[in-house]
Amino acid sequence: MGTLDDERRHVERCRAGLRRMLDGARENVIVGETVAGDRYSAERLGRHLKSLAKELSEEPEGPPFFGRLDFGRDSAEHGGRAYHIGRRHITGEHGGPPVVIDWRAPVARAFYRASARDPQGVDVRRRFGWSGRTLTGFEDERLGAGEEGGSTILAAEIERPRVGPMRDIVATIQPEQDDLVRADLDTTICVQGAPGTGKTAVGLHRAAYLLYAHRRRLERAGVLVLGPNRAFLGYISAVLPALGEVDVEQTTLEGLLGAYPVRAADSAPAAAVKHDARMAEVLRRALYGRIRRPAEPAVASDGSYHWRVGEDELRRVVEDARRAGLPYGVGRERVRARVVASMRRQAEARGQTCNAAWERRIGRAVTPALDAAWPAARPEDVLCEVLSAPPEGILTDAERAAIAWPRPPRGVKAARWTPADLVLLDELACLLERPRGYGHVIVDEAQDLSPMECRAVARRSEHGSMTVLGDLAQGTTPWAARSWPEHLDLLGKPGGRIVELTTGFRVPGAVVELANRLLAALDAGVPPTRSHRSDGRLRVVRVAELEKGVVEAVREARAFEGSIGVIAADAHVEAITCALWNEGLDLGERLSVMPASTAKGLEYDHVVLAEPAAVVAAEPRGLNRLYVALTRAVSRLDVVHAQPLPAQLSRPS
Ligand SMILES: Nc1ncnc2c1ncn2[C@@H]1O[C@H](COP(=O)(O)OP(=O)(O)OP(=O)(O)O)[C@@H](O)[C@H]1O
C-alpha cells in the first residue's frame, strides 16, 4: 500500500520522469525543426513540440499526482495493480509502465466513480494532500471493505478560500459531474444547474476530456468555448492551459461575430425585434430578393469572338442555382461557372482550345450579366437596406417602426452598428457563405442567448456536438430561455440530453438559503440549490449611508484571506469605487468592484453586495440579476443596504 515515505519516493520518480520527458521534448524541438517535409508542417510540428516543452518545463512545480487507485486481486483487468492519477501522463523509466496516469484515461474513471456500493474492482482509493511542492499526507477509503467518505482533503479543496482565476477541479470531480465530463463526443448535453454547481467547471473539463479521447478528430475540427463577457473569460482562461490544452478557442459571442465595431445601442423595443427569430426570414428574403429574372443575354468576348448565353438558358441556370439552396455567394459563383461552361462548349464546338486563362477571362467578362441577375452582396449592404426601410410581410408595422433607422446613414461606412446588428450581420454573412464549424462547442450562460444568437451558435456546430450550460433562474436578458427543450431546438440540437445539477460547491448554506427565497418570485421552474458547504457567513447590515457602509464592510473583509468582490448596481459603481479609493482601499488583484451586470459566472471569497433594491430596480429582470449577485460568494456575504431590502428577500412565512 505504501507509506508516506514510499509515496515521497514516488514523487521523486515522477519528477525524474518529467525531466526525461522535458529533455526528450527539447531534443525533438531541435530535430523536429529539421525533419518536417514542408514549411507548414515544420511550423506546426515546431509549435506543438515547443508548447509541449514549455508545458513540461513548467510542470515540476505542481503536484505530479493527486490520487491513487489500488485494485483488488480479483479485478479482471487490473488485478493487484496500483495507479497514481495526475493531471498528465508521466512515462516510466526505460519504457516501463507509466508512473502517473492521465486523469482522463479509462482506468482513472474509477477514481471518480467507484463507491463502497460499487467499488468497480477498487480496493483502496487514496487522496493526497499537498502544500506547494511538498506531499504532506494522504487519506484512504477502503472501498473494497465498504468504507467511503469523510475525506478532509476533499472538503478542504472545496472550501479553500478563492484567490485569482478559476482553477481546475480534476482532483475532486464528483460522480455526477464526471458523468457529464466523460459523455460521448456525439452527444449534446445541456446542464441546468443552480449557481456554483460546477457547470463551468464541467464544461471546461469536458473540453479537456474530449480533446484527450478524440484528439485527432477535434484537433482538426476545433473546440470552441463561448462565455458571457470578457471578465468571465479572464476568470476561466487559465483552466484549460493548466490541463495541458492550449488550442481551445475561448471567446464571447461578440468576439466571435465581431467583424464590425459596435458604435451604438438599440432601444429595448428595437433590440427585442432584432433578436426575434423572424428576423432570419426577413434577412433571407432581403438577400435572395436581390436575384432578378435575367432580361438580357450574357455576352463575353475573348478578344477574337463574342460568345453568348441567351436569356432563356440564363434564366434556367439562375433558377437551378436558386433551387439548389446554396449559400448566396456560392450560388452566384455557380451561375458564373455554368455560363462560362456553356460558352466554352460553344468555343470548343468551333474547334477552339480553351485553357484556364481563357476561362478566367470569360469569367470576368460575364460579371455585368451576373451583376444584373445575381448581384454581389455584402452583409452590411443588405442590413443597411433593411434598417433604412424595413420590408413588409413578416414584421408588424410597429415592429418595423421599432427597428427603422430614424435617419439612414449617408453610406454603409457611416452606419453605426449595435450589438444586435452584429448578430444580424452574422446571419447575413452566413447566408452568403457557410461559416467555419467546430467539432464541439461549449456555451456557458446559454440561458441568456436570444433566438438569433442561438442561430449564430448553431451555425458553428452544424456537424458537431455541444455542451450547453446554464440556469433558467439566472436569465437576465429580455429574451432569456424559459425552457431548455425549446432553447435546444433554437440551438439546432433538439435531441440534446438535459441533466440537472443541484449540489452547490461555491455558495455556503446560509447564503444559498437567502438566495433560494427569490426562486418562487423568479418562476423559472428550477429546484432550490442544496449547498455542499455548511461553513460560511451571511450578514445583512442596514446603514445610513451606502458608500460608508460598503467601505466599512471592505475594511473588515480584509482581515480574511481570499478575494473580495463588491457587487453593486451599475449606476452605483463609480461612487463606490471613489469612496474606496478615498479611504486608501485600492482596487487590485484582491479587491474588485463589479457592476452587477458583469458579475455573472464570477466568484469571490468575500462578497459585499451593495443595495440589493437598486440592483432589482435597474432592469426589467432585476430580480434575476439579484439572484446572480447573491450567489457569487464562496465564504462570506455582506449585504449592505440603505434602502429597504426587496420584499422577496424576506423570510418566507
Ligand atoms: N467537484 C468540485 N470540486 C471542487 N470544487 C468544485 C467542484 N465543482 C465545482 N467546484 C467549484 O465551485 C465553484 C463554482 O463552480 P462553477 O463556476 O463551475 O459553477 P457554475 O455552476 O458555473 O456557477 P454559476 O451558475 O454561478 O456560473 C468553482 O470555484 C469551482 O471550482
Describe the model.
With 653 residues, the protein is an alpha/beta fold. The chain contains 26 helices and 20 strands. The strands form five sheets. Strands 8-7-11-12-6-13 form a six-stranded parallel beta sheet, sandwiched between helices. A five-stranded mixed beta sheet has the order 3-2-1-4-5, with helices on both faces. The protein has a five-stranded parallel beta sheet with strand order 16-20-19-17-18. Strand 17 (564-568), helix 24 and strand 18 form a beta-alpha-beta unit. The structure holds adenosine-5'-triphosphate (ATP). Residues 157-158, 166, 169, 172-174, 177, 193, 195-201, 471, 474, 505-506, 601, 603, 631 line the site of adenosine-5'-triphosphate.
The main sheet orders its strands as 8-7-11-12-6-13
Instruction: Summarize the main sheet.
Output: 6 strands, parallel
Based on CA atoms alone, the radius of gyration comes out at 30 Å
Shape, please? globular
Q: Please, what is the average pLDDT?
A: 90
InterPro entries: DNA_helicase_UvrD/REP, P-loop_NTPase, UvrD-like_ATP-bd, UvrD-like_helicase_C
Keywords: ATP-binding, Helicase, Hydrolase, Nucleotide-binding
Domain UvrD-like helicase ATP-binding: 172-508
Protein name: HelD family protein
Features:
653 residues, nucleotide-binding, 43% helix, globular, alpha/beta, six-stranded parallel sheet, binds adenosine-5'-triphosphate, five-stranded mixed sheet, UvrD-like_helicase_C
